[in-house]
Amino acid sequence: MKDNNRGISFSDIDADWKLALDPDNVFWGVIPRDNGTFILPDELIDLYKREREHLDTELNDFRFNADLNCVYIDPTDRCNANCPYCYIPAKIRKQGTQMTAQQLDTVLKKVDEHFKGVKKKPVIVFHAAEPLLAKDILFDAIKKYHRKFLFGIQTNALLLEKEDAEFMKKYKVGVGISLDAAGEEMNNRSRATTKGSGNYQKAVQALDWFTGYEGLNVICTVTKYNVNKLSELVRFLHKKKVPCVLLNPVRLTQKPAVQIKPEDMLFAKNLIKAVDTAMELSQKSGRQIVIGNFANVILAIISPTARRMMCDISPCGGGRTFLTVTADGDMVPCGEFISMKEFSGGNIFKTSIAAAMKSKPFKEIRSRMVEKIDECDTCDFRHICGSPCPAEMHARGNMYKKAEFCEFYKVIIKHAFKMIAEDKVKYLLREGSLEQMQMEYQY
Q1: N or C: which end of the chain has fewer CB within 10 A?
Q2: Of residues 331, 336, 374, the one with CA closest to residue 257
Q3: DSSP state, 151?
Q4: Which residues, in sequence order, are bridge partners of residue 347?
């Protein structure tokens, strides 16, 4: 099946399943291991030959021709928390800039101008350190621009009040609440405040205010502190009627984060356990909770161009499908680059988004591809994992090294194939996701 050094490769998923995969376009088939020698049926070979060119083109377009569709805006550099793994240096979080209402309005006008004529509403996510430190100007901006943009806010909830939650629901704002554990002591160890406590009580209170809200997500950063308690967190959040949780590996952009990185195999084992827990709860209760980052791996396999998180495609979405505007107006490919001024594509108060997209730093990030990374270039899962993240690897000394969590990703991707083979996808994606997809090929 090899042709010009490419084609279908064969491997074992586990004791029950075998995998046939073209790594270059993610054409795949899973076959029971009890069928003897790994020989593809003629019908599957014929299907592959028919679909190969189409799938090559589709994935290439997704990788290199997808348009900018999301702008992260950091209205403030400052934060009322002191998380040990934060990608923003402590000095910036303590002494950083904060936008005025006029500056934020200027940014949004420039974003609106850039997307003029685009039918689909662009997404604006207020992010950074803690955006609710600039709550008043954010809410005024949302009132003014809610017909032009889809808004989201990522917050530690320390400053969130009930009337704020009602406002966000009224304007259909996507909400990400930061919570690392089901128990207060463990959560507050990593989600610490500048006053020495933590965000647990406020975050849990916020979950109650947003009960039943479809736009709610919980973002958990997985470290060596909480890696053994992920299933416990899933059970807790399911009781709170949270529809989606992201169990994201800690990014090692800043040196303190390196000390609390979980071991790859331990993380993989516990994430799989959390996925099993989420499926069990969803099936028994009829009310779904989805592990967002695992769902994205499923999408990367069954519908590669439908995935939402753009960290696991190569080149990543930074400076391509999204960018970040910092509090002082710098445009960087992604928030992880905030401390790396050499990756600024210009200042939005002085130039345009279009100019940033064409800038040398943005082109440099877009040029980082798995084909240029040792080991990734021959890995079967290179277009499912994407070898994240360029900022992390640049901070670690070489942007062109494979991902820090490489072995973790391999295990998780194999488990995703296993779940697909066992027909469990319907329990792993958000309700209605499969109905929105169109079958392109099937054997």
Answers
A1: C
A2: 336
A3: E
A4: 330
207-233 confidence digits (pLDDT tens) = 999 999 999 999 999 999 999 999 999
Q: Which phi-psi region, left, alpha or beta, contains residue 129 (left: φ > 0; alpha: ψ -120 to 50)?
A: alpha
Cis peptide before 361 (omega within 30 of 0): no
* The amino acid at 400: Y
Which phi and psi angles does 192 have, rounded to 5°? -80, 155
For 299-346, the pLDDT digits (tens) are: 999 999 988 889 999 999 999 999 999 999 999 999 999 989 899 999
Contact indicator for 88, 129 with CB cutoff of 8 Å: yes
Cα 249 to Cα 143, 303, 326: the distances in Å are 34, 23, 23
Contact 231, 205 (CB under 8 A): no
Q: Rounded CA gap, 307 and 302, in Å?
A: 10
Q: What is the DSSP letter of 4?
A: T
Tokens of 269: 């084992």
The tokens describing 53, both together, are 């060119």
Which of 185, 199, 183, 168 lies closest to 79 in space, CA to CA? 199
| CA proximity to 405, closest of 387, 417, 383, 390 | 387
Residue 294, CA atoms < 13 Å, CB-side half-sphere: 34
- pTM value is 0.93
> Could you tell me which residues come within 8 angstroms of residue 189 by beta carbon, excluding any fewer than 6 positions away?
198, 225
pLDDT at 1: 43
Residue reference for tokens 């420039």: 110
Length of the chain: 443
Backbone conformation region of residue 108, classed left if phi is above 0, alpha if psi is from -120 to 50, else beta = alpha
Cβ burial 394-422 (10 Å sphere, 16+ → b, else e): bbeeebebbbbbbebbbbbbbbbbbbbbe
Nearest to 198 by CA among 224, 180, 221: 180
Long-range contacts of 399-407 (CB under 8 A, 24+ apart): 399/368, 400/368, 400/372, 400/373, 400/374, 401/373, 401/374, 402/373, 402/374, 402/375, 402/376, 403/376, 404/249, 404/252, 404/261, 405/249, 405/264, 405/267, 406/264, 406/375, 407/264, 407/265, 407/268
- Distant-in-sequence, close-in-space partners of 352: CB < 8 Å, separation ≥ 6: 110, 113, 114, 346
Question: In whole angstroms, how far apart are CA 372 and each of 27, 394, 406?
Answer: 22, 15, 16
In angstroms, the Cα distances linking 270 to 213, 225, 249 are 27, 13, 12
Buried b / exposed e over 351-376, threshold 16 CB at 10 Å, is eebeebbebebbebbbebbbeebeeb
| b/e map 1-18, b = 16+ CB within 10 Å | eeeeeeebeeeebeeebb
Q: Which two tokens stand for residue 357?
A: 């997209």
